[in-house]
Specification:
Two copies of one chain form a homodimer.
Chain A: H1 19-32, H2 35-46, E1 51-53, H3 54-58, H4 65-77, E2 81-86, E3 89-94, H5 96-106
Antiparallel strand pairs in A: 1-3, 2-3
Chain B binds a DNA duplex through residues 34, 36, 53-55, 58, 63-74, 85, 87-90.
Keywords (chains A, B): DNA-binding, Transcription, Transcription regulation
Protein name (chains A, B): Metalloregulator ArsR/SmtB family transcription factor
Organism (chains A, B): Pseudonocardia ailaonensis
DNA sequence: TCCTTGTTTCGACGACTGTCGAGACAGAGG
DNA sequence: CCTCTGTCTCGACAGTCGTCGAAACAAGGA
């Protein structure tokens, strides 16, 4: 379902964002606009194999389990990560397409 | 000048963000994480000449002047735009370097 | 079966944010 | 000088967000 039309990647310099697209993109940026979530995403993205389990993420911060779980849920709702359970542990990995969408929007000089 | 230092543009896949850098980047993404601000930035970036005055931005939304001014202030504090007064009107333009920084962070496959 | 460990959901609290109206400041022109 | 227009600051209010403790759910092992 995530087939992206040409409009998905047009940069800011192209034409003004309409309200609907702005709302979707803002949801993603809002998820990124929190230091803990940004670090969580970076931890997952840079982890060996491209995925990390919650148990490895919790110890990095001085935060309780529920708080980490909450932030992971926000990142999941924004479409930035995806998690699946394998046995006891749940492993999270990034959604590259979604990140590319954000990166392209902010790229003022698209690859020509 | 199109080549940046290694630290400023290292993508998420490189190494985990430290708390300080995450805080600065999160400030910028938080500014982008609001539909009105995202549309304001897009209006400025896509405007003829690369700059737009507040009077042209206010009419687009069903919001009062103070509210638009507040959002512009947040974008300014995040380093995303810059405004200078010329006579009666104040013109805003984007800060390309800052946008490039964000775009590069989210780019999972940097130009190799 | 019960117990232990990993993860999420629920309910609550303080802090922050978006919005407004009223007023202040800046510049242009009588 | 005064006035008008454009923009910002201030103070206040409702709504949202990050955080926690307690409890629930899921899977594995005694």
């Amino acid at each position: 379902m995530s087939k992206q039309g040409p409009a998905c990647c047009s940069p800011l310099t192209g034409e003004p964002l309409d309200a609907e697209r702005a709302a979707d993109l803002a949801r993603m940026f809002k998820a990124l606009g929190e230091p803990v979530r940004l670090r969580l995403l970076s931890l997952i993205a840079s982890h060996e194999g491209g995925e990390a389990c919650v148990c490895e993420l919790t110890g990095v911060f001085d935060l309780t389990g529920p708080t980490i779980s909450h932030h992971l849920k926000v990142l999941r709702a924004a479409g930035l990560i995806r998690g699946d359970r394998r046995g006891t542990w749940i492993y999270y990995r990034v959604e590259p397409e979604r990140l590319r969408q954000a990166s392209a929007l902010l790229d003022l000089q698209p690859a020509s």
